[in-house]
Amino acid sequence: MPGHVFLRLTVAVGLAATLATTALAQSDTPAQDPAVSPPATAAAVPVSTADHSRFDALAGPFTTAQEVNEACLPCHNTGPEQLHGTLHFSWSWPAASSGQAADASAMAGGMLHVANGFLLSTPSNLDACSSCHIAGTRFEDPAVLDASSAPVAPVDCMSCHEPTGQWTVANFHEDGAACSMCHDERLRGDTPEVKDFVLAAKSVGPSTNASCGACHFNADGGQGVKHGDLNADLLAPPPTLDVHMAAAPEGAGFTCSTCHTTTEHALAGSRYAGGPGARPESPALVGAAASCQGCHGAMPHDAIKRGVRLDRHISTVACETCHIPSIARGETATRVFWDWSTVGKLGRDRKPMAQKQKDGRITYTTEKGHLEVARSFAPDYIWSDGMLDMHRPGTPLPATGATEIDGVEPGRDASTELALIKDAFADAPWIASYSGEPVSEDARIVPVKIMHSVVPIDAENRALASVKFSGRSGDALWNRFRWENAVEAGMEAAGQPFSGEVAFTPVRQMIPVNHMVAPAEVALQCPACHSSDGLLEELPGGFLPGRDRYDWLDKAGLLLLAGTLGAVLFHLVLRLGFALFHRGKRHG
């Protein structure tokens, strides 16, 4: 055998062996589903390059929280300027740039301006609401939210960078916020406080789930009240609850800032920016933004057998729709009903009271009225393009058939009660809702939590009311429970007129569901949606196989089938008849 031929055979055999070994290794290794494997781009979370416990500037002594923050600024001297231009500081969207006053009339959103069905509105309760503001000061003065105010509004570095979140919790209590703002019942015991300012200052570092959660887990009145996918269950979740935030190796070990990346103190990801679509014009889905596609790409299922078929859904179905099968799946329930019209009922001792069920649910409090919570329930599904339409105090509500509710009696089985609540609010107007049409290129099917509330309005023009809840004034609702006085004070604070008469009306609002992502093996399967009584049974628009049908086409098919079957039977009869006829002639 010539030498060059032998060499070629040797190379060929070696190459074949290498390919066979590779193929065998690939066949023995299960495909990694990107839904349960941490993406390389997101897993590389930078850690702090500084050990603040070594800095002499933080050695103290400190006697106030403001002294701690002032010690940070000589090094982080651009921090306040950056922070003043963010949504976290101004509570307005778009946020006012540093040095520019925020024009409330020009703001599209932000909790300083919009109304909701929980604690209703912020301007009339600024002294209490600002207890969780990151300015480091607590004044009943809108200037605390205005970066152009003189002297320049400070910042509270510790709110985000003290890793345990206890700094922020202590601020809530030390700055005099009304207990009912966060607690449904009056708790006994000492309130948290910061005793060692030096220890707190030296502990600072990157934000943690606990520091972010100190505010976001307790939004609008307590643990999990507002968000069905954000609560303290995410501090140490099992992978079945959140595969991203569970500790490695079972989970990805993410923190909030892994997805909500920061540029000059502005965090990516907001209900006010971007939508579920994959177009580059949607800012929530590009680069390091807080979105599924930011890490998993536009074809997230290419590593599994059914990947091609599943990836066809990306243009119409948001990732969260399949991978967050239920809301409040952990130990913490979320609020789904709040009836403000029933406020004011006192206990036998003529003092505010709370009513509980055997399972521990609080279903009535004097300060907040009737309440209902639920856990582990399916989201509602809508078409969304990411544009959130919100109402403000003073905005008239559309006239609808829903002016009161029937059949809702908090205290029964929670799952049964939720179904009754949804039926009772079926015609209630929306005070926060996403736009989106099935024919829109930017719209996707997304999951939302729907909050059902009975809220005060101006009886004359159906304008949403702003209410003063607490404070030393006799006008505060929680002092004397006089709605007319509380609404008059609240509307004045919001700069809105008031007729003097209060009415109540049911309203609904949509709240996005983006967290508590389940492992791939418990994601929704095809029949969950592709069936006549599936999760998308009432979702309008489009033709969904398994759910939708064309009656005329079904009838035509049945007629064609019946005709074919009839022809076959007729042919069979003819064959049998001719066979018997000819058989008889032969034997005769």
Automatic annotation (TrEMBL):
It comes from Aliiruegeria lutimaris. SUPFAM superfamilies: Multiheme cytochromes. GO terms for molecular function: oxidoreductase activity. This is Cytochrome c554 and c-prime. Keywords: Membrane, Signal, Transmembrane, Transmembrane helix. Residues 1-25 form the signal peptide. The chain crosses the membrane at residues 558-581. Gene3D superfamilies: Cytochrome C3 (3.90.10.10). InterPro entries: Multihaem_cyt_sf, Multiheme_Cytochr_ET, Octahem_Cyt_c. Pfam families: Cytochrome_cB. The lineage of its organism: Bacteria, Pseudomonadati, Pseudomonadota, Alphaproteobacteria, Rhodobacterales. It comes from the Bacteria.
